[in-house]
Amino acid sequence: MNETLQRSLAGLVYMFLIIVGATLKDATTIVFLFFGLVCLNEVNKLIKEKNFWSYVFLVFALLGVHLNYIQQNGVLFFLPLFALTNILLARDLFTKTPKYLALNNKYLLSFGYVVPSFVLLVLAGNVFGEHQPEILVGFFFLIWFNDSFAYVFGKSIGKHKLFERISPKKTIEGFLGGLLMSIILSQIINYIYPSNLTQLQWLGMAIIVGIGGTIGDLIQSKIKRIANVKDSGKIMPGHGGIFDRMDSTVFSITFVYIFLILSTYVS
């Protein structure tokens, strides 16, 4: 099978599973548990950490969410900690030393970054108290639009490097193009896909995804540079690993979730 076809089929299967997981409440936990365990395994291999308890923690956390033992109120207290972890990882993009990424705080990546992201993904569909697939489906389409058009704009008109030391191919034009298309898509979603989210909430989500998705991609690029590998895994032919596909998601979902909670509370 030729490489382009393999890549296309792998991408379609991935998108299908994500949409099924986001849409069907009974499948949500199973799908994101699978992706979470694979992603966690890839991250642990990248940082050379045999972290058995992170897998156990992820399983029990998602099981707790599925059985309603862990609800929205149960994670609110930890949201600032999750956000702080993401901010520390983003801060380290500006340093030339691994710091939190590879030295003394390897558990931070597992317990403070990857595991919480998949817990929040499962909770995000129920942020208003009942399962609303349009929130998760819309979120992932914003992620995909941002990634795809950042590549298109960067490839076609990109001239100014965004963060050359970590990701030489990323450009400012690509970043702005991906952000713009995410914003446009958010307004289209708001118009054709009725939900509890307001127009401003969709707009806010698109901005967070555009900025956060890029940061998540850069964080993953730095982790891979430290590990001296091209891809985080090989499970998806032509794409690499699950962490390669979900780097934007893992970073963005924490801030999207916080934004939805705060904007709903304020309104």
What does this structure look like?
The chain has 267 residues and is an all-alpha fold. It has one domain (3-266). The protein is 73% helix and 3% strand. It has a two-stranded antiparallel ribbon with strand order 1-2. Strand 1 and strand 2 (167-171) form a beta hairpin. The mean pLDDT is 88.
What structural keywords apply?
two-stranded antiparallel ribbon, mainly alpha, 267 residues
Return the structural class. Answer: mainly alpha
Radius of gyration: 18 Å
Give average pLDDT, whole number: 88
**Poorly predicted ranges:** none
Distance between the termini: 53 Å
Strand content: under 5%
Helix content: over 70%
Tally of DSSP helical segments: 10
Main sheet makeup:
2 strands, antiparallel
Reading the helices and strands in chain order gives HHHHHHHEEHHH
Morphology: globular
If strands are numbered along the chain, what order do they take across the biggest sheet? 1-2
Oligomer: single chain
Count of discrete domains: 1
Total strand count, please? 2
List the helices and strands and how they pair.
Elements: H1 3-23, H2 25-46, H3 52-66, H4 72-76, H5 79-91, H6 106-124, H7 133-157, E1 161-163, E2 167-171, H8 172-192, H9 199-227, H10 242-266
Antiparallel strand pairs: 1-2
Helix pairs in contact: 1-2, 1-7, 2-3, 2-6, 3-6, 5-6, 5-10, 6-10, 7-8, 7-9, 8-9, 9-10
